[in-house]
Design goal:
Number of helices: 4
Number of strands: 6
Oligomer: single chain
Helix content: 10-25%
Structural class: alpha+beta
Largest sheet: 6 strands, antiparallel
Strand content: 25-35%
Order of helices and strands: HHHEHEEEEE
Mean pLDDT: 81
Length: about 130
């Protein structure tokens, strides 16, 4: 392990991976690790999820990253806004609050899984 990596890990408490997963992420930190730099991803502000706004999310159409200290954690993003399941515009809009709020990938509406009945067949021999 390099000296820089050791210093980084020593500053973190507990499991470093768990700490990274639990910390707040801006939109570009979420999109940076997705395929095609997040284009086509469906993202949501965490506060919308916490307030129970079902079907409210952004579908990312275009992303321009700006590297800060070699990390693409700033930039601009455009997409289609869906509110309560309905698309609000036909042209991509610039996504506001990309750095201000905590973001995550949209998980979709939480519906209970339906149990599929097991079909049973009986055969009789004559």
């Amino acid at each position: 392990m390099s000296k820089v990596a050791r210093e980084f890990v020593s500053k973190l408490e507990g499991n470093p991976l768990q700490t990274y997963i639990q910390r707040k992420k801006n939109l570009f930190e979420v999109l940076n690790v997705q395929k095609f730099n997040g284009v086509g991803s469906v993202v949501q502000q965490v506060r919308w999820d916490e307030k129970g706004f079902a079907g409210c999310y952004w579908k990312v159409k275009k992303v321009h990253f700006k590297n800060i200290d070699g990390q693409p954690i700033h930039g601009k993003a455009w997409g289609f806004k869906f509110w309560r399941g309905k698309q609000l515009s036909d042209i991509p809009e610039r996504i506001p609050g990309t750095l201000k709020y905590d973001w995550h990938l949209y998980k979709g509406p939480q519906t209970p899984e339906k149990e599929t009945p097991i079909e049973t067949t009986t055969t009789t021999t004559a």
